[in-house]
Amino acid sequence: MILSGCVPDLDLASKSNVSVGTYYQTPSDAKAAVVSMYSMLRSMYRDEVLMTPNVVAADDGIPFLTGNADRVALWNYNLVPTNTFPGAIWSNAYTGIQRSNIILNRIPPISMDETTKKGYVGEAKFLRAMHYFTLVQCFGGVPLVLNETTSLAEATIARATKDEVYKQIETDLKEAETVLPKIYTGADVGKATQGAAKGLLAKVYLTWAGTDAASPYWALAAAKAKEAMDLGLYSLWDNYSDVFSLANRGGKESLFEVLYITDLAGNNFTTGYAPRGAPIVPGNGSGIFRVSQSLFNSYPANDKRKPVSFLTSFVHPTTKVTTPLSVTDTDPAKGVSFWKLADLTSTVAGNGGKSAPILRYAEVLLMYAEALNEAGKGPNAQAYEAINKVRARAGLDPLSGLTYQAFKEAVWLERRLELCFEGQRWFDLVRTGRLLSAVKAETSFGRATTIQTYHTLMPIPQREIDANPALKQNEGY
Fold first, then answer.
1. What is the pLDDT of residues 211-237, one digit of tens each?
2. Does residue 38 form part of some domain?
3. Are 366 and 390 in contact (CB under 8 A)?
4. Residue ranges making up the domain that contains 74
5. For 137-144, what is the mean pLDDT?
6. What is the reported pLDDT for 9?
7. Which of 36, 128, 268, 290 has its CA 20 to 30 A from that of 99?
8. Model confidence over 154-185: pLDDT tens digits?
9. Using one digit for the tens of pLDDT, what is the confidence trace for 48-105?
10. Tell me: the pLDDT tens digits for 391-407?
């Protein structure tokens, strides 16, 4: 069991000479199992698993074109079932689900404080729902595993339908929000809360509605987002840069985030995405991918988020020569970089400590605005108020007098600008039916995509098809 969690101050004491048969007996066993459950998030959100598809498979970034072949294939939609990215998403999610199921199966019999126990169960249901939400967005219907898997025979399961997966996600989150605490203190800050469950369920409803203008899930999304807002626990930081500050981890804008520890249990958002070879980060920059001209030029000139989000030049620490960066120069050493999650206090390559934001209050406001517009077939005062709060912080003028369609498109753009490099873009394009048009429009750097309608789902990893004869591949692959 990997006893590393997303909470920096947790006791990571070694557990030796234990087995499944002798473990899960005491409150400390339960706590360690919960830590292990959270540790899977570090792998899923570190950099290459969910971040890459949501940047290069969409229209926000261009990969290093002579680098990882699977990343370039993803960018061009030369997708095959052996591509490593869908495989990593699948394996990380199901490992996380197994750890949640262990909690749900083995923690209830332990003699311990009942409130704490219920909280652990709520956390397990929240994280299981979160993993299934990732899976259903990426692959459609997937096997629903709701109990701890203890034998290979139990792993031969056919795919559930997409709606069956969504219904299970809804059930888990509804149950989680009734037992999770509203806040944590001390070393527990960063764990799943009632607000996180409500906010995630709002996002689930929004995604479940898809492109169906008559869907009942629009109203449910608006109501659940409002419940999260009405908790009175969340608000926007005054400055966009404050959202991503190391000092503000677990702060007032965060409903849920994956926490890292600088130079100890970090992420690759700093070294990985700095310009290739740039001597401004530990190990020099890797230039894994760069910002697209499409995204960069979408920001209004006075948008305060733009200089926070991107690195547009750097000064060599020795020669003091300034290197300007570009969204059109083909040299990966001169590409504008995603920068708002860079931890410049880090001294070890690939070990930045800034959080990976999963759900923050700005997104709740935008979900509320979008859902109200859809449910009412036009924006009301509350919808304008919500989106304009986000725009005000960015230094943009308030919106008013828009039609239903114009407001919808305004929210879509606001999400792109506010949430860039937070693992959202591909999911947004798919759920709103815009993936093909957006990808075809992003043709810079010789992108010659072969994207087809079936690419709105990823291929089931071939190794899973080989191991489980009950699995059927997604159409087109």
1. 999 999 999 999 999 999 999 999 999
2. yes
3. yes
4. 27-180+457-467
5. 98
6. 42
7. 268
8. 789 999 999 999 999 999 999 999 999 999 99
9. 788 889 999 999 999 998 888 999 999 999 999 999 999 999 999 999 999 999 999 9
10. 999 999 999 999 999 99
> Is residue 301 domain-resident?
no
Asked whether the beta carbons of 325 and 405 are under 8 A apart, the reply is no
Within a domain: residue 310?
no
Q: What is the mean pLDDT of the chain?
A: 93
